[in-house]
Design goal:
157 residues; homotrimer; mainly alpha; 0% strand
Chain lengths: 157, 157, 157
């Protein structure tokens, strides 16, 4: 049956519109997470906020010393990343389970893009300290996850 | 062959009992993680434990001010989430690799449910400060992950 | 068509060399993350660095008390795990999307093994405080992720 397993991806998953939507959103969220990692590194360099002694020595320039607590700008950047870690890996798994358990193409577009855009706007709101916007975008992301979870539960139970 | 790729999920993955078990457990663990996120938010509100100045202003009520360290109840809730982050995304990936590399339906039930129940009980034990139970449930989760990892290594090596 | 869905994994995914590479690397990275979790636990025991009161009571021996801040060796171990959490779950999702959207077997080997080896060496460099090596291995991992993300974007856009 699987005459040419080497083309599994192209033939099978790519032909599936829900999976394409998921993969595209996962790639965009991956870029967003890499951006946030670089933002943290940039804040660390800009404010010379080092925690590891070897970082201060190698990257801090003359006189730089590592602290015992993160400087405020770095701690802020780390909180942005931490909130991503509490939400985006959940999308990676739940979104995939959702599209592989029979999401309609329209449902996949609605849930995946809602989550993806909400998380991008969450980062924007967190970076510029915008409340209640940050809480609203966080909540929209949670609702999108919840919708997909309920779908998977209905199909698999 | 794939005459109707729009039904990939229903036809293929849903018909696969190991995958169904994985998807169901992933959805339950997703709910558990959302619960823990809401628990942290609740502790933050209850103890008015804010770190971002804008949170204290918008959600803290009169006189609320952001601190520089998390208050104990919030730090405790964040540790529950952090331990989840160190374990559950690992299940999302390893569990999927395990069922897609030929887990028997019985093996999938045994490993996935052991992990899922152990992680729920871990949260219960952490919330009410129950040792050595918390360590035991953490260890059971680790052993379930290890079993699935060994299976994937044997099949793919 | 799917006469025997119970053999989905063996017949389909295992026959696909890119997926095998991904699953093998995911299993190795899973082992690496479990190792890092045990390293943190070991540092906690060795330095009697407890944060939860119940941990100090049950595991700390006579006179052990929980602190309000992590001791340096534990904080260091937690930073190793945290950097993993910011990178490895991203590989779990992006690597899978990459192999399922038509990665060539050679491309899968190049990207997956580059990432896997870079992350192992990152842990080695972090454990022994080796800069700029730690930054270099972190950057190589980021570049491997970026390459896979670009591939997924090209195929799905």
């Amino acid at each position: 049956m699987n005459a040419n397993p080497g083309t599994l991806g192209i033939d099978y998953f790519i032909a599936h519109p829900s999976f394409r939507t998921y993969a595209l959103c996962a790639a965009i969220l991956g870029l967003k997470m890499l951006w946030s990692a670089l933002y943290t590194a940039r804040m660390r360099g800009k404010h010379r906020g080092f925690i590891n002694a070897e970082d201060a020595t190698v990257f801090g320039g003359a006189g730089a010393r590592a602290g015992t607590d993160e400087v405020p700008a770095v701690a802020h950047a780390l909180r942005i990343q931490r909130n991503d870690l509490e939400n985006i890996p959940l999308f990676f798994a739940i979104g995939l389970a959702y599209v592989l358990t029979g999401a309609s193409p329209l449902g996949a577009v609605a849930y995946c893009w809602t989550f993806t855009i909400a998380r991008i706007l969450h980062t924007v709101a967190y970076t510029w300290n915008l409340q209640p916007w940050r809480a609203i975008f966080w909540g929209i992301g949670i609702l999108a996850l919840l919708g997909m979870i309920v779908h998977v539960l209905i199909v698999t139970l």
